[in-house]
């Protein structure tokens, strides 16, 4: 695989752009091909089998784009599908859970860590598993926050309803005396400012997106896949529904403009039907 090939990133929706932003900062020479499964978001209330099926479909699409490595920018898919995909792929692939858990274990002083995520991620127990492997003395307090994803997808980042929901989910966790809180869904960092107002300065917010970007750089280096060509890459963004809403929210977060829009057919590898995918291409700079 050529080191100049693009990297693939996928998520259930807009949330994975938090990982894209960190990848752009950490790996400015790498071209990114992103897929947001906005037609089937959220993944957090779906079964493991369904999430694995969706992930396989998207990975096959990314491989058709000749990506050299893949980031699962979705905690739910990382928790439920990463092991299956690793066993099937020849290209390197990483998720966001392990880097996030590692970072939380490093910053806690009280050994009390909160984890907020989708129901599927919480039910998988994967954050607790990784944290206890790092330090058996860590106490993990988990909370499923299923309403955060639709609020973000709706663009209600700073809204009175969103603030009320944050309090409803987090007040009990804060009372447990946690000093670190893992934002265990890639949608959640888009709510960092509002969450931070509730948790206060004493609780460190851990963004797995940042840690994942650091880890992915190491993966590329270890596999001799780091792009050495200094240029401004043109990134491709594909979504399965709602391209206009996706573009508006992605632009507001990433600060860069969509330059072209068109429709493509993406093969559904599970049942031989064709499903319509819409993609956005954006240019850096």
The mean pLDDT is 89
Helix content: 40-55%
Tell me the radius of gyration. Answer: 18 Å
Distance between the termini: 27 Å
Notes on the structure:
- The protein is built from 11 helices and 11 strands.
- It is an alpha/beta fold and 285 residues long.
- The protein has a 7-stranded mixed sheet, with helices on both faces. A 4-stranded parallel sheet has the order 6-5-7-8, sandwiched between helices.
- The chain is 44% helix and 22% strand.
- It folds into 2 domains: 7-96 and 211-283, Rossmann fold; 98-208, Rossmann fold (3-Layer(aba) Sandwich).
- Helix 2 (48-64) crosses helix 3 and helix 8 (160-175) packs across helix 9.
What's the helix and strand layout?
Layout: E1 7-11, H1 17-26, E2 32-36, H2 48-64, E3 69-72, H3 75-88, E4 93-94, H4 97-107, E5 112-117, H5 119-124, H6 126-134, E6 139-144, H7 148-153, H8 160-175, E7 180-184, H9 192-199, E8 204-206, H10 208-222, E9 234-239, H11 243-254, E10 258-267, E11 274-283
Helix pairs in contact: 1-10, 2-3, 4-6, 4-10, 8-9
Which key phrases capture this entry?
single chain; 285 residues; alpha/beta; Rossmann fold; 11 strands; globular
Compact description:
The protein is an alpha/beta fold. The protein has helices at 17-26, 48-64, 75-88, 97-107, 119-124, 126-134, 148-153, 160-175, 192-199, 208-222, 243-254, and strands at 7-11, 32-36, 69-72, 93-94, 112-117, 139-144, 180-184, 204-206, 234-239, 258-267, 274-283. The chain is built from eleven helices and eleven strands.
């Amino acid at each position: 695989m050529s080191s100049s090939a693009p990297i693939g990133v996928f998520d259930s929706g807009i949330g994975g752009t938090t990982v894209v932003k960190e990848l752009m900062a950490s790996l400015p020479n790498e071209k990114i091909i992103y897929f947001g499964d906005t037609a089937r978001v959220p993944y957090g209330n779906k079964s493991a089998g369904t999430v694995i099926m969706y992930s396989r479909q998207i990975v096959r699409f990314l491989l058709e784009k000749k990506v050299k490595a893949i980031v699962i920018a979705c905690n739910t898919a990382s928790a439920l599908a990463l092991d299956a995909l690793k066993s099937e792929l020849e290209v390197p692939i990483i998720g966001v859970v392990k880097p996030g858990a590692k970072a939380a274990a490093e910053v806690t002083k009280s050994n009390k860590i909160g984890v907020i995520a989708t129901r599927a991620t919480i039910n998988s127990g994967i954050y607790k598993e990784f944290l206890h492997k790092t330090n058996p003395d860590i106490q993990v307090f988990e909370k499923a926050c299923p309403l955060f994803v639709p609020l973000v997808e709706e663009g209600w980042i700073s809204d009175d309803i969103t603030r009320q929901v944050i309090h409803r989910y987090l007040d009990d966790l804060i009372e447990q005396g946690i000093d670190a809180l893992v934002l265990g869904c890639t949608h959640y960092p888009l709510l960092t400012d509002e969450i931070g107002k509730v948790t206060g300065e004493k609780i460190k917010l851990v963004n797995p997106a940042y840690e994942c970007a650091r880890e992915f750089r190491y993966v590329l280096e270890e596999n001799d896949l780091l792009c050495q060509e200094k240029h401004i890459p043109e990134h491709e963004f594909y979504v399965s529904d709602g391209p206009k809403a996706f573009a508006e929210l992605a632009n507001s977060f990433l600060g860069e403009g969509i330059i072209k829009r068109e429709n493509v057919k993406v093969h559904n590898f599970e049942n031989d039907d064709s499903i319509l995918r819409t993609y956005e291409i954006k240019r850096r700079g």
